[in-house]
């Protein structure tokens, strides 16, 4: 509990932690807004395809002109990795670019904070292995839900509890799988203009709604925490915070969880569209299993809601603060050499499912787009079926029809050009476990 003290020491010594940010979009801007008030942390360089927009992002979040003038602005993330930095933050959200940038950062001896969970799910186990060999930290992004869940799972296990289930909340209805970026803002109660003014990318926010981001995050949590992914997609049970233990205890004791030690995403809407009472739309949770009768009794004595067996109880965090909490990862990597959550194996995947009947010639447009949504399944099943990872479902055309709701395979699309992303994906598939 001394991260701020460690950072303050660096500030007093005149040696702030030097970070570089790749991707100054919504997440990046939220991080940048906190930098001037985080002693001991400096963002020395920012790379974005549009460096002027990145400069404007800094001004827009309140940086003064002297801070803007002291910062290097670049248009290439790989070049940024060669700057004098302790930590590289990858926040482009583009899976293939994320892999290229992470490899460049590792090669340059920089710690990597991988905001780009899309790239992490594609091949994070292989990137983590490369980072280990290079002696640098490869970390999940604190503030995003997978890192917060990883922290809660670690907390539970380090305190001697069993972890029955863990995950996050979201706003989900089955019909959302087919929403496109054209309709997305009505589901957030926003107009396209107000969303644009807030710097919110419609395709990115559609991936939060159409189930893709939930699948990606659930896979990341499973891969980081050693939890089991669903066999055929998340169930998204409607569930409020007081019912987590009840709903997510195992099926054989009356719950809805398909097994023990599972990852699941709970919905803030009942299936008929009514709001769930005390929902967890923006939060994260862990369902604990008491290791013995004594600790089960303590749950009740100290006020935790339990399921009827009294063995299961839950802890949750109601909100995640996205980029505003990212300094925790950056400082932890640089000052403690510790990741805030890390992909440790490749046991869960997020694969592309057709949003509508697709025909030869249709070109895929990736996460949150008009053609596919992402489903969380076991990595073993994905590899055996030759399923198309959602992170590779960008810019390639179909060579045969795929019916709405079906998982796409690599044989359904034209050959994906070889590159770092495909190579690291193959490396990750070799680490299946
Ligand atoms: N926006 C959120 O609320 C939110 C929440 C949680 C996690 N995230 C994660 O944050 C990441 C970014 O999301 P976002 O919402 O900020 O997206 P965004 O589209 O707002 O921003 C991405 C930025 O990266 C830049 N970029 C894209 N490709 C690049 C490249 N090759 N080199 C350099 N810059 C490049 C773009 O120009 C843009 O400024 C994603 O991985 C997403 O999953 C976002
Ligand atoms: N993951 C969130 C969005 C931002 O992290 C959601 O599912 O709505």
UniProtKB/TrEMBL annotation:
GO MF annotation list: homoserine dehydrogenase activity; NADP binding
Domain SAF: from-to ranges: 64-118, 349-414
Enzyme kind, highest EC tier: oxidoreductase
InterPro entries, alphabetized: Asp/hSer_DH_NAD-bd, DRL_cat, NAD(P)-bd_dom_sf, SAF
CDD domains linked to this entry: SAF_DH_OX_like
Domain of life: Bacteria
EC number: 1.1.1.3
Record keywords: Oxidoreductase
Name of the protein: Homoserine dehydrogenase
């Amino acid at each position: 509990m001394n991260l701020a003290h460690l950072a303050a020491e660096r500030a007093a010594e005149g040696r702030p932690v030097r970070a570089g940010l790749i991707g100054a979009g919504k997440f990046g801007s939220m991080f940048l807004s906190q930098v001037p008030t985080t002693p001991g942390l400096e963002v020395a360089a920012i790379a974005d395809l549009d460096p002027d927009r990145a400069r404007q992002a800094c001004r827009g979040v309140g940086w003064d002109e002297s801070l803007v003038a002291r910062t290097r602005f670049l248009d290439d993330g790989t070049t940024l990795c060669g700057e004098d930095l302790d930590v590289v933050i990858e926040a482009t959200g583009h899976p293939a670019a994320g892999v290229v940038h992470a490899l460049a950062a590792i090669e340059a001896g920089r710690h990597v904070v991988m905001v780009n969970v899309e790239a992490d799910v594609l091949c994070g186990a292989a990137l983590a292995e490369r980072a280990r060999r290079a002696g640098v930290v490869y970390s999940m992004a604190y503030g995003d839900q997978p890192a917060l869940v990883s922290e809660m799972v670690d907390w539970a296990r380090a305190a001697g509890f069993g972890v029955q289930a863990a995950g996050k909340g979201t706003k989900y209805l089955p019909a959302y799988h087919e929403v496109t970026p054209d309709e997305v803002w009505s589901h957030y109660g926003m107009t396209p203009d107000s969303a644009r003014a807030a710097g919110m990318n419609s395709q990115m926010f559609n991936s939060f709604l159409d189930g893709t981001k939930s699948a990606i995050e659930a896979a990341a949590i499973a891969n980081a925490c050693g939890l089991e992914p669903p066999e055929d997609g998340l169930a998204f049970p409607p569930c409020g915070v007081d019912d987590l233990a009840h709903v997510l205890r195992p099926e054989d004791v009356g719950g809805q969880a398909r097994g023990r030690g599972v990852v699941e995403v709970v919905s803030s809407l009942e299936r008929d569209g009514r709001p769930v009472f005390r929902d967890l739309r923006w939060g994260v949770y862990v369902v604990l299993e008491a290791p013995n009768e004594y600790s089960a009794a303590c749950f009740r004595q100290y006020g935790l809601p339990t399921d009827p067996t009294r063995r299961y109880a839950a802890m949750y965090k109601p909100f995640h603060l996205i980029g505003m909490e990212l300094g925790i990862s950056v400082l932890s990597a640089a000052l403690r050499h510790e990741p805030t959550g890390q992909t440790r194996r490749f046991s869960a995947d997020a694969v592309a499912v057709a949003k509508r009947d697709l025909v030869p010639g249709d070109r895929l447009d990736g996460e949150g787009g008009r053609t596919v949504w992402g489903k969380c399944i076991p990595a073993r099943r994905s590899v055996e079926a030759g399923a198309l990872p959602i992170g590779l479902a960008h810019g390639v055309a179909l060579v045969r029809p795929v019916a709405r709701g079906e998982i796409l395979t690599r044989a359904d699309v034209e050959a994906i050009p070889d590159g770092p992303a495909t190579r690291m994906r193959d490396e990750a598939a070799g680490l299946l476990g």
